Amino acid sequence: MAPLSRFLTRRMLGPFRYFCFSAHVEQSSSPHSVALSDSYSFSSSSFPSSSRWKLNQLWPVSILLTAAAPLVLCHEESNDRHSATHEHDRALPISFLEELKSICGDNRVTLDLDERSSHSKPMSNFYPVINIPDVVVYPRNKNDVIAIVRTCSKYNIPIVPYGGATSIEGQILSPYGGLSMDMSLMKKIVELNVEDMDVVVEPGIGWQELNEFLRPYGLFFPLDPGPGASIGGMCATRCSGSLAVRYGTMKDNVLAVQVVLANGDVVKSANRARKSAAGYDLTKLMIGSEGTLGVFTEITLRLQKIPESSVVAICSFGSVKDAADVAIAIMHSGIQPSRLELLDEVMMNALNQANDLSLPEEPTLMFEFIGTDAYAQEQARHAHKVVKEHEGHSYTVFETPEEKETLWKMRKEILWAYLAIQEKTAALTTDVCVPLSRLAECISRTKEETDASFLMCATLAHAGDGNCHTAIVFDASKEEDVQEANRLITFIVDLALEMEGTCTGEHGVGIGKSKYLEKELGIGSLHAMRKIKNALDPANVMNPGKVLPAQFCS
Predict the structure, then answer these.
(1) What is the C-alpha to C-alpha distance for residues 478 and 455, in angstroms, rounded to an integer?
(2) Which fold has domain 4-16+308-498?
(3) Distance (Å, whole) CA 531 – CA 343
């Protein structure tokens, strides 16, 4: 059992060097170019006479980003009306902007092009931007949100809630322009109940920031998605992370939410009781709704005690199937890991390159066991026995808190490490999840398909709950690359659905996964979702173009 220092030749200091796709910014010289003036309008000689901003009309913007996959937009009545290249003109009514300023103040309502462009595409999103928000606002409290939503509803302006901008499937894209509601100023910790082990927070606070606050109380919030994710965004996408195998996903760790609906009404879904059978479960309805049903203003979270001790280990295998088989065997044995992660040899190579390590570049499992020191050590010994029975090797335990923290930090950033060493221009990731018994088959068949492809692909998984990610990098300027990337994505999703799995285990639907919902859930389920959407948001102002496929949005 060698410590991490055996492999570590350079500690990772400071923030990780994130990989970000480049954007081509182009200021148009046409009569339709952006003209941000005192009248808050886009110049044109043919602007529609109607003073109302039309939700279902798509207008040109001055920022173009290249990417590979087509957008799926709701209310797609005609190619002209929703084509990214068919130019229309748009203007926000002066009265609308003045009302926003009366709500938020001049300094929290911006028409700045750079600010709007920065709210048009998250760093981790690989779908094309065909529009940017027309205005960005920064509410400070629930009353601001209510007033903003009511104003947008009055003028029929789309609302796109904006959290930590870490979503993967295009949840914060603004295909219809409209208003980006940046929740970053709403990050208060409203109420901490130490004895009840729960906390009430505003949606803009990040999970890492929250855990820093909770640490002195011996508590933590046990979900750990990508760095920078906000609690509101985590609720919106129903995310999870590497700790889900022990603590569950977002839906299992939220006790109640407060939501502002499209008409400005405020809905409280529950009290703080750990269980309730009172009425419809509005909490779970809102979690995973991706801003299409309302805007979160308060969230009540279930907390956990910080474990007394932890044991962290890794081991290597001859194939991804062998590694997945061990993950399944560990879960069947009664061992309760708090983390059980799988990385293929490509990801291990990226981890080594990004961090100057010399870990074995083979399919690898990463384990964590928590509890009392005696319990964690006992669980680790049982896991080691299972590993040896399945011919795993290089079983290494990390001893110090610094080594453990460094390992999980590197794991959190492994996708960006992988993308950073590539020379391609775009990437797509899968997020399938299958029943645990099918995980080994799913991963091995996926690897067979991706290894045979001419594109570079890598696989990692939250192996303890059957959630598998494949990252596919390609040149977006080459049609054959684009077609192959989309073929691989479709193959992997179809494979998961064949195994009674899902197209998205934790990233959410957004734009990228909506086309798979009919095959996964059936027409009846989608019609039911449409009725819920129409009942709560009949004008479709709440994050339009997300979740529901286009044919189910009218």
Answers:
(1) 12
(2) Vanillyl-alcohol Oxidase; Chain A, domain 3 (3.40.462)
(3) 41
Gap between the Cα atoms of 126 and 237, Å rounded = 17
**pLDDT of 430 over the 80 cut:** yes
CATH, domain range 27-61+66-184+524-554? 3.30.43.10
Give the global pTM: 0.83
Segments making up each domain of the chain, as ranges: 4-16+308-498, 27-61+66-184+524-554, 189-305
The separation between the first and the last C-alpha atoms of the chain, rounded to the nearest angstrom, is 60
User: From CA 374, how far away is CA 200, in angstroms rounded?
Assistant: 34
Of the candidates 521, 506, 510, the residue with the CA atom closest to the CA atom of residue 548: 510
Q: How far apart are CA 355 and CA 325, in angstroms?
A: 28
Burial of 22 by CB count in 10 Å (0-12 exposed, 13-18 middle, 19+ buried)? exposed
Q: 1 pLDDT band (50/70/90 cuts)? A: very low
Q: Which CATH class is domain 189-305?
A: alpha beta
How many CB atoms are closer than 10 A to CB 6?
A: 12
Report the run of H or E that residue 398 belongs to, with start and end.
strand 393-398
Give residue-wise pLDDT tens across range 193-251: 999 999 999 999 999 999 999 999 999 999 999 889 999 999 999 999 999 999 999 99
pLDDT given at position 552: 84
